[in-house]
Fold this protein.
Amino acid sequence: MLWFEITATVARADAEAVAEIMRLVAPGGVAVDEPIDIHGPEMGFTVREGEPVGIRAYVPSSELGAILTEKLRVAMHAAFPAVELIAKPLYEQDWEIAWREFFGVVDNGGRVIIVPSWIEHTPSPDQLAIRLDPGQAFGTGHHETTRLCLAALEELLPAGATVLDVGTGSGILAMAAVLLGAASVTGIDIDPVAAEVARENAGANGLAGSIAIRSGTLERGHGRRYDLVVSNISTAANLGLRDTFAEVVAPGGQLILSGILAVDATRVCDEMANAGFTRTRLSFENDWCLLAFARQ
């Protein structure tokens, strides 16, 4: 089905009123696009207050659509004569499927590769393949922080280790840990949707027996210690868990932190040293870094 996307770019002060005018004549809905800066995984975003706002409305390419478009033009001219309406054709499609074209096999030269569930791919004999459907969870293997964690797990994970994956998302790191020799993995994510996605992915890869996933937050008094903890969340979230990490990492165990901007590396090292951790690894990829520590 062909639709027309009608766009108006307006001052922030006029955005709500313009959106309401468009909403009254748009059976396909209205979207408001605020200019934002995204800060990274679980770090949120900042709205750029001084910049114009985009308003998009959708009308069908039909006689009804022509009538609605004319009504919109008249109403907009009466209220905001300076606002320009721009129309372009847009074919309706299954976006749940269409977004998949942006995600291919993730092969960074290590043993673990990530293969989207909708792609046919035969791994080489020395590769460990994770079949993945991220759904609504964070984690496709394409982000720098995930790649850094996969490389660190391959190098640092002891055989037979117990592992805690904080912010498990789609479950990539939990599954990778089992494939690389962990005896058991506990994954935790604040998002219950992500936790369910991780469970489904573990089951689809035949790893459900070695991975326990739960939704919630990691709290003091967790009650269990692990040989290795990996936490790919954000600088602020990792530092907020500093004292909890000191409880859950077993003496002599290892802690892998990522989701950290490179400019924050020194601050994170200093904070973790105060909690009894000694840095053993520092890796960078673009603006991101990974830090590994040994528990004293």
